[in-house]
Amino acid sequence: MKNEKICVIGCGNLGKSIAKGLLEHEDFNSENVIATRRKLKLIEDLKPHGAEITSDNLYAVRNSNIILVAVKPYNVDKIINEIKPEIIEDKHILVSLATGLGTNEISEMLDDKIPVFRAMPNIAADIGESVTCICGKNSSVEHTQKVKSIFDAIGESLIINEELMEAATILGACGIAFVFRFIRAMIQGGIQIGFDANTANQIVSQTVKGAAKMLQENSNHPESEIDKVTTPKGCTIVGLNEMEHQGFSSSLIRGIVTSFEKIEK
Predict the structure, then answer these.
(1) Residue 69 reports pLDDT greater than 80
(2) Which residues constitute the domain of residue 235?
(3) Which pTM does this prediction carry?
(4) Which of 19, 147, 204, 226 is the most exposed place for a label (fewest CB within 10 A)?
(5) Within a domain: residue 1?
């Protein structure tokens, strides 16, 4: 991937996080990364890492072969119409990060000229720990591997069927906010039972990190790991049962489903 020239159009929080991940990864040549934004001062910190920054989207497309469009869904049509004159068949691949826009819609905007992908990372891309779901249209195995390599540089990625992309948005992208809210509640509980905020934060953050890593490395169901911690008449099972009595799991599931119903509309 060192010879691939990549532009990230619209470096807001997510686009900038992806650009940073590429710049810091050894498989990519930082000199081949172009980042665009109207307000250049907001992405100037990418320059010391080797990126070229510009507010000229046409220039960025002209000098790249993989285009990441990281703008809001309502701006995708505008951006594609802007860059379309510079898009060349057999040269470019376009990856949209916009929620709710299908590959068919995007391909129609481009007159079905080039491979089109949708990708849904989350903001943990900023530290190289995103999970990204990807689907494509008019794409070869080689195209797919190139796109996957980009998102593997900022965490883990997987190829899924397009009909699951909205669900992936909820579980992966929105889901990180749900996890943060859970962590915040644990910290608040820690403060109530005697810890200062910083110490509670440290304990909870590492606990969550350890739990996630155990699931990844052991490939066990969460319930089997819970069984290792709960003992008869112990404090863990009492706490878990009280949370369930108060609707912990059902509230989380309802929140996920409600977010999904919103995106489906």
Answers:
(1) yes
(2) 168-264
(3) 0.86
(4) 226
(5) no
